């Protein structure tokens, strides 16, 4: 029997309470200081892997659900559909389960087995397509077919988060840095998937009038770097980015290039090698996008030391490495993918001794 408008409003109010209660049950994420041979330059990683669903995307999913609920896009019988290669789908499946709503994740074949299992464990359904560009129209089609709501993280990520504060990730970083030797970071370095987090951080930096600069590290095959360089949202690539969860074959609507101060292309082999290197440094596994972040961080730190500058750099552990034991941590999988990690691991080992990062010869 259809619900009355009063009943729907009551359901939405209870749904918002449930989502907000999840935030209240979660403490803020930790900020780890790395022990690196970079005198005067302190490096920190904000550990987003400790969220209930294990990644930075928990924040995004919470914001997207609140945004959609308060816009009246989600009701008590709405099927939630998302285009996602993994972590966002895991987190959205969690929140859909919290509200007893069906959830369908549209993703490319080849998404990690561990992420698929997590989506299904939270009660979601995985729907596969052959290539990343097919995700968007297929998600729209399924939402229309089911009478559901396409969350569309790539459009709404930068809109759903309150970038002025309200305990967003940027405000959290600066609060946690307040007692450190260099409390205002010289740089915040991160990779982009939707672009929503970089938009939030970049806007917050400008709103609070901090001198901090924002660098976005972009993997191979991603359109973000060229789009930023040319100030164009029309850039696309034919190559699918191979660092799961970040980089896109098109410039997503949530990527706000105007708040980015610099960008760096990070080779995939460098991301995977650095993922393994920083996992050993921390004593626990981290995901490949964290490797992308940290390779860029080490470049920035090395240049600061060589220039005689002091300060702090903050980046993120986007998710844990347990989700990638059958892929990026599997030597055979890496070899089959054509990745040669040895020269990059040598560069990282040398950095660990000298604090100077030199990429392998003939590599960018």
Question: Any overview of this molecule?
Answer:
The protein is α/β, with parallel strands linked by helices. The chain has 2 domains: 26-55 and 166-354, 3-Layer(aba) Sandwich (Rossmann fold); 57-157, Rossmann fold, CATH 3.40.50. It has 13 helices and 10 strands. It has helices at residues 5-25, 57-70, 87-98, 113-121, 135-146, 153-160, 169-176, 196-207, 224-230, 268-282, 288-306, 331-336, 342-354; strands at 31-33, 41-47, 80-83, 103-108, 125-129, 149-150, 187-191, 213-219, 262-266, 311-317. It has a 6-stranded mixed beta sheet with strand order 1-2-10-7-8-9, with helices on both faces. α9 links the parallel β8 and β9 (262-266). α2 crosses α3 (87-98), α3 (87-98) runs parallel beside α4 (113-121) and α6 runs parallel beside α8. It is globular and about 70 Å long. It starts with a helix and ends in a 10-residue tail after the last helix. The model has no long low-confidence stretch (mean pLDDT 94).
């Amino acid at each position: 029997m259809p619900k009355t408008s009063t009943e729907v409003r009551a359901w939405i109010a209870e749904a918002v309470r449930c989502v907000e209660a999840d935030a209240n049950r979660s403490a803020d994420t930790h900020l780890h200081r790395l022990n690196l041979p970079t005198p005067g330059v302190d490096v920190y990683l904000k550990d987003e892997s400790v969220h209930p669903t294990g990644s930075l995307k928990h924040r995004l999913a919470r914001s997207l659900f609140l945004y959609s609920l308060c816009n009246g896009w989600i009701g008590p019988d709405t099927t939630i559909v998302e285009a996602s290669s993994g972590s966002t789908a895991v987190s959205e499946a969690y929140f859909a389960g919290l509200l007893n709503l069906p959830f369908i994740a549209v993703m490319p074949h080849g998404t990690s087995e561990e992420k698929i299992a997590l989506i299904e464990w939270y009660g979601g359904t995985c729907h596969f397509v052959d290539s990343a560009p097919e995700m968007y129209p297929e998600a729209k089609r399924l939402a229309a077919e089911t009478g559901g709501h396409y969350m569309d993280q790539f459009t709404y990520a930068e809109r759903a988060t309150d970038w002025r504060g309200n305990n967003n990730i940027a405000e959290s970083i600066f609060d946690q840095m307040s007692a450190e030797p260099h409390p205002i970071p010289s740089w915040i370095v991160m990779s982009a998937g939707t672009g929503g987090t970089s938009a939030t951080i970049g806007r917050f930096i400008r709103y609070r009038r901090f001198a901090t600069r924002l660098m976005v590290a972009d993997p191979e095959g991603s359109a973000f770097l060229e789009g930023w360089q040319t100030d164009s949202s029309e850039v696309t690539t034919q190559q699918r980015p191979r660092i799961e969860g970040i980089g896109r074959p098109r410039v997503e609507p949530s990527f706000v290039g105007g708040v980015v101060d610099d960008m760096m292309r990070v080779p995939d082999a460098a991301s995977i090698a650095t993922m393994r290197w920083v996992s050993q440094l921390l004593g626990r596994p981290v995901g490949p996008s964290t490797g992308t972040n940290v390779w860029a961080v080490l470049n920035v730190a090395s240049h600061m030391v060589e220039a005689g500058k002091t300060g702090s750099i903050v980046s993120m552990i986007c998710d844990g490495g347990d989700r990638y034991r059958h892929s990026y941590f599997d030597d055979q999988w890496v070899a089959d993918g054509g990745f040669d990690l040895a020269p990059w691991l040598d560069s990282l080992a040398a950095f660990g001794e000298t604090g100077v990062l030199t990429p392998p010869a003939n590599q960018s």
